[in-house]
Write a structure and sequence with these properties.
Layout (H helix, E strand, L loop, with lengths): L2 H10 L4 E8 L2 E12 L2 E7 L4 H5 L3 E7 L8 E12 L4 H7 L5 E2 L2 E2 L2 E16 L8 H6 L20 E4 L2
């Protein structure tokens, strides 16, 4: 695994949920999913009642997660793209997932599991200066401050890092 892949996995392990995206009947969709990282794959848990797992299984999907709502000063986003396949998780994997929700959209939660072996891994790091905390005051005064410069990088170098595996 490359350094960027390891960084993406380290970041993914910091959060529990993300979003899986693919298409169903030629229409794109994004659905929430719980994830764990196992070896070199991302294992997803979704609610069977949504039916999205049928569109994902055997298809190319993108799975993304971020820390956008954590309040951390620097923001990051990771994306793993590859083919998803239905799996039966091991006892150890089930323990890593922990308990699921009681209900999803008013229905009892019924989990379904997929494995995603990434072919592409993308890491974006948005680094803000210390001036970021002054933004709300400027917004309240009616001023429109310049958007803070965001750097896209996998290691703080100011570059976007994608890994494409054959």
């Amino acid at each position: 695994m490359s350094t960027d892949d390891l960084r993406a996995i380290e970041l993914l392990n910091r959060v529990r949920y993300g979003r899986v995206a693919t298409s169903m009947r030629a229409m794109p969709f994004v659905a929430p999913a719980r994830h764990i990282v196992k070896d070199e794959s991302v294992v997803l848990r979704m609610h069977r009642g949504m039916g999205y797992h049928r569109a994902c299984s055997g298809s190319v999907v993108a799975y993304g997660a971020d820390n956008f709502n954590t309040g951390e000063p620097d923001l990051w986003s990771v994306q793993f793209t590859g083919t998803a396949s239905m799996i039966r998780p091991t006892t150890d994997e089930l323990a890593l997932f922990g308990p699921g929700p009681h209900h999803v959209d008013g229905e009892p939660f019924e989990p379904v599991y997929m494995s995603l072996t990434p072919q592409f891994v993308t890491v974006h790091i948005l680094e803000y200066s210390t001036e970021r905390s002054a933004e709300p005051a400027a917004e309240q005064s009616g001023e429109h401050p310049a958007e803070p410069a965001a750097e896209l990088s996998g290691s703080g170098s100011g570059r976007r890092h994608d890994r494409h595996a054959a």
